Amino acid sequence: MSITVLLFYFLSALALGSALMVLLSRNPVHSVLWLIVTFFAISGHYILMNAQFIGIVNLIVYAGAIMVLFLFVIMLMNLNKETEPKKNKWLKLAGVLSGGCLLLVLVAALKTAEKKGELVQLVDGDIGLIGNLGKALFTEYVVPFEISSVLFLSAMVGAVVIGKKGD
Amino acid sequence: MKIEYYIVLSLALFCIGIVGVLTRRNAIIIFMCIELMLNAVNLLLVAFSKMHHLAGAAANPTAGIEGQLFVFFIMVVAAAEVCVGLAIIVMMYRNVHSVDVNFLNRLKH
Fold first, then answer.
1. How far apart are CA A102 and CA B18, in angstroms?
2. What's the complex ipTM?
3. Which residues cross the membrane (chain B) (predicted)?
4. Binary contact (A151, B71; C-beta < 8 A)
């Protein structure tokens, strides 16, 4: 078993375990911290696949900016274990059951997939490097790129308008 | 690494996100589970991109680059969504002093 395969299993176990801990922890602050661990594991997967640009952007945008925003909002609201809403046991059971059934159905559908057994290129290949991605982004995909900048601007204005005190 | 492993991993992450949305009642945790589902899809897109690159790199040196660009745009849209969504949650907390989504069953008040 080579080092990349070992790394794949380690990162997968880390991602799944910390994703489960996001659900199981009662304190919302702990949920945010476990979600950051999940994002780090997913970034590790990206870097293992040599998609370095996406990996670094995932770290900066998700694990950095978005999670700080979540943590900031939770601390602003003073949420903790005591303010956590009580929930119905049957509702929880039904949710877990239906999620498990969905997973079962999707994995069963994978059995008849066409491209089964094709390999994913690990540690090699240069399409994930920032030079190639940037070249494609600013030639073929320049219109979506500009539209996304307008989307960001409107989201920013919208957040300010929504959060403004007093109407 | 075979593609099935990546598919099963991201399916598991996606289903964990769905279970979170169904069972938790804290609006912020529900939001975080949506982020988890988006990340599962991103992981699968990158894996498929690297699969197509391995298959078609001889004919086209940038085969499979679209998958990673889609991931980039998904991240952009997710960041905008978080920005607006958290503003809505903060406003909701300011009005009802709770983030329990069950309070939202009376939206007209």
1. 9
2. 0.91
3. 5-22, 28-48, 69-93
4. no
